[in-house]
Amino acid sequence: MPILKLGIPKGSLQDTTIYLLKKAGFTVNVNSRSYYPEIDDAEIECMLIRAQEMPRYVESGILDAGITGIDWVMESGRKVVKVADLLYAKQGLRKVRWVLAVPENSKIKSIKNLHGKTIATELVNFVKKYCKQNKVNANIEYSWGATEAKPPRLADAIVELTETGSSLRANNLKILDTVLESNTVVISNKETLKDDWKRQKLDNILMLLQGALNAETKVGLKLNVPAHRLKNILSLLPALQTPTISSLSDSKWVDVDTIIDESVVRDLIPKLKRAGATGIVEYPLNKVIY
Hints:
Helix 4 links the parallel strand 8 (about 120) and strand 9. This protein has a five-stranded mixed sheet, with helices on both faces. The chain has helices spanning about 15-25, 55-60, 70-75, 125-135, 165-170, 190-195, 195-215, 230-235, 265-275; strands at about 5-10, 30, 40, 45-50, 65-70, 80-85, 95-105, 120, 140, 155-160, 175-180, 185-190, 220-225, 245, 255-260, 280-285. The protein is about 30% helix and about 35% strand. The model has no long low-confidence stretch (mean pLDDT about 95). Helix 1 (about 15-25) crosses helix 7 (about 195-215). The protein is an alpha/beta fold. It folds into three domains: about 5-90 and about 185-215, D-Maltodextrin-Binding Protein, domain 2, CATH 3.40.190; about 95-180, D-Maltodextrin-Binding Protein, domain 2; about 220-285, Alpha-Beta Plaits, CATH 3.30.70.120. Pfam families: HisG, HisG_C. Its cofactor is Mg(2+). Keywords: Amino-acid biosynthesis, ATP-binding, Cytoplasm, Glycosyltransferase, Histidine biosynthesis, Magnesium, Metal-binding, Nucleotide-binding, Transferase. InterPro entries: ATP-PRT_HisG_long, ATP_PRibTrfase_cat, ATP_PRibTrfase_HisG, HisG_C, N-reg_PII-like_a/b, N-reg_PII/ATP_PRibTrfase_C. It catalyses: 1-(5-phospho-beta-D-ribosyl)-ATP + diphosphate = 5-phospho-alpha-D-ribose 1-diphosphate + ATP.
């Protein structure tokens, strides 16, 4: 039986990735003592790998594909193929930023003021390029963690990953510039993509994962509507596509089924009720495939 070797990111993206795989239809069970999670698909073999290392193992063919951040692909310089963007992070469905930050009371106002200074970061190679582009000769030091705690004693500035900026603010740091925007990506290698079976298997997983992501901000809505009020009800619905309208046993009524943004439901349902809709049911979605 052919097998697709898939890398799952260990660390900040791990829980969200496993949650989305579950919504996509794949149950992944992680044993705290093993780096080889179980998955309920005999055609997939999973391995937990740090996102920073994923490009290396995908490039070498140890893994056929892996989920990581585009930041680590750029940092590694490895020759891998990006096959999909997946817009999610640890805390939400959005991009993250690598930012240049200094203490709130620092006299440093921009990258230009860091000539001859020390910058601590995990993203060493990319920050070196960033400094070179800005014609700044700074000392770039690799940070093994707790990067926010290093200024001002251990470094003059940091380049750190942030999703909301809360950790930086808690450590009395201010952002001077965005060095890089990043998002989750699926990467593969040329050999894997030449294999028709592996390519099809990977495409299927990606379609389901993207569908799970699409569903995160959507809900389904079913309602019964008097036929003579249908036009008015439809004018209230911000439908993903044209709503599905079905006849009921009572010809004076129809059933309306649609998909909408979850953010509008709390305002929409009272309007639908006042307009004559009854039997309104809101339900969660696992996947929305466009």
